[in-house]
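Objective 1b of the project was to move from sequence-level analysis to a structural picture of ligand recognition. The entry below was assembled by the postdoctoral researcher (A.K.) and checked by the PI before modelling. It contains the amino acid sequence of the target and the SMILES of the bound compound, zinc ion.
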Amino acid sequence: MKHNKNKKKNKNIPPIKNLEDITEKEQIKQIEVTKYITQAFTTLTGNPRLFIPDEIHKTPLRIYKAYKELFECAINHYKLPATTTHNPDENSDTTSLTTTFNTTYNGIVAHINIPIASVCAHHFLPYFGYAHLFYIPNKKKLGLSKIPRLIRYLAHQPSSQEELTDFIIDKLDEILKSKGIMLIIECIHTCEAIRGVKINNAITITSAVRGVFRTNNNARLEALSIYEQSKTKLSI
Ligand SMILES: [Zn+2]
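Corresponding predicted holo structure:
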């Protein structure tokens, strides 16, 4: 069998117990990726026993699963999802994430303090914080619960915060086609906090502005005033 042959070929990797009910193609992918993760650590440390103790025996598999979740958007080739697969808390909701509703509302919709987490493309270390979205509908609005789920999904890729901010606002406006849209993201980067310069209180803030928020000062100031009054203090 193809799968057995693959297992035999990779006999140096720790056996993976309790493989879930997944396809053979997925099992092969899982075995390959966990093998490389094991090899990376053993090459780095020169300690082939690193993964032998019970508690970290399954660590390469756990890393594989974490990456699968954290890179979901990249794995899906950056396409907008119909639904996301890594929302265990919300898997009863099967409505498409990109479904919009008609609206006659003409004011600012502000959805702020949305938790966001991504992985920096430079170090593959997480950065996390909050996203704040403002838009003025052009006859279409997104369900409120869709916004955080879309942002969470879109951030699941190796990224830099600057480009991620543009990427998310463009994808959201692909759905909304709003009169104006603004996105502020504020994050703490663990690659800056725990290594290198080791500063754990620096917050990186990025913003992307489109449509009426760019051309009309009053609209932008109104959105910024909402942000100033409501923003969450970020710290680790
Ligand atoms: Zn980094």
